[in-house]
Amino acid sequence: MAHGGSGEEIGRRALVLEAESRLRLCGVESPRREAELLLCHRLGVSRSELYLEGDLAVGPEDRVWLYQGIEQRCEGVPLQYIVGDVEFMGLVLKVDRRVFIPRSETEVLVDAVVAELADAASPLVLDVGTGCGNIAVALAVLVPGARLLASDISSDALDCARENAHLHQVGDRITFAQGDLYAPFDLPVYRSRLDAIVSNPPYVPIHEIGQLPREVRDHEPRVALDGGDDGLAVLGRLVREGRHLLMPGGLLAFEVGEAQADAVSELIGSLGPYGYPKTIHDYAHKERIILARTRSHRQTPRGER
Ligand SMILES: C[S@@+](CC[C@H](N)C(=O)[O-])C[C@H]1O[C@@H](n2cnc3c(N)ncnc32)[C@H](O)[C@@H]1O
């Protein structure tokens, strides 16, 4: 390996520079930032602490960990898998190869759902395709009266989601179950009972998966990405198959891919029980969040014209 070796003394600052240059050589986009993040994570220090004590020698075990992390980054392993966590809605969540890494646009989805649930004292909410549990855990934390149901087809993902629910002390308000979309919760007790269905489903058209960055394409679970031929296979099923679970006036809230908002809105609008949906932009001003309510006393999502 081209690194300084674990026998030599090396200080924090010098190690960051060494890591930066290795990461730059293998094409990592923000090599200094990632070098700092890796070392800060391993040493449990902030960025300013790292440099304030920049001459402090880094122990051999920490150096070996860093060198291994750098090699993994060079192979395209996402930084979040190496450090083992990600921040979502201000919560630190465990992530690893079992799960899709939560993205910032999904925070827009959670914000919108929290606003929509403002009037409900103890809403019952289903999160379909929960992954690491980011949506379900964040909703449980942010809506203290809420009870959550969370499904995923991947039992590995559900294990991770349960760990995150436990970590944030909301495990007693979330029921996890493995299965295809609504199947685990398609029970008489839940029919016409849900206040909301939320999902960030797989929506990448299958022929586009090969063009994704290698971090995503080669390392994140394929089942979290694959939206079938047109990307809408799972979204279409979510729209069509969940209606009977929602109470009158119940909320459907989805994240969709770029350029999918019109198709999903039209599908929702074409089905009798829903009012025409409202779309919300993500931080990049793309229409990525869709909200619709089943027709009842309150026919439209908040803020719709
Ligand atoms: C894009 S990831 C989203 C994960 C997480 N909810 C988030 O927001 O980051 C989609 C998730 O849906 C799950 N999934 C894919 N197909 C499914 C199906 N037919 N039924 C249930 N879950 C499914 C995947 O395992 C994955 O965890």
Amino-to-carboxy terminus distance:
61 Å
The total of helices stands at 11
Biggest β-sheet: count, sense, barrel?
7 strands, mixed
Outline, from the CA principal axes? Answer: elongated
At the first level of CATH, what is the class of the largest domain?
Alpha Beta
Strand adjacency order, main sheet: 5-4-3-6-7-9-8
What structural class results from the helix and strand content? alpha/beta
Structure summarized in a few sentences:
The chain has 305 residues and is α/β, with parallel strands linked by helices.
Note down, in words, how this protein is organized.
The protein folds into two domains: 12-75, Orthogonal Bundle (Helicase, Ruva Protein, domain 3); 85-293, Rossmann fold. The chain contains eleven helices and nine strands. It has helices at 12-25, 31-43, 47-52, 60-74, 79-83, 104-116, 134-142, 155-167, 214-219, 233-241, 261-270, and strands spanning 85-88, 91-94, 124-128, 147-152, 174-178, 194-199, 246-255, 278-281, 287-293. It has a seven-stranded mixed β-sheet with strand order 5-4-3-6-7-9-8, sandwiched between helices. A two-stranded antiparallel ribbon has the order 1-2. Strand 8 and strand 9 form a beta hairpin. The protein is elongated, with a radius of gyration of 22 Å. The relative contact order is 0.10. The model has no long low-confidence stretch (mean pLDDT 94). Residues 100, 102, 106, 129-131, 134-135, 151-154, 157, 180-181, 200-202, 221, 223-224, 234 line the site of S-adenosylmethionine. S-adenosylmethionine (SAM) is lined by residues 100, 102, 106, 129-131, 134-135, 151-154, 157, 180-181, 200-202, 221, 223-224, 234.
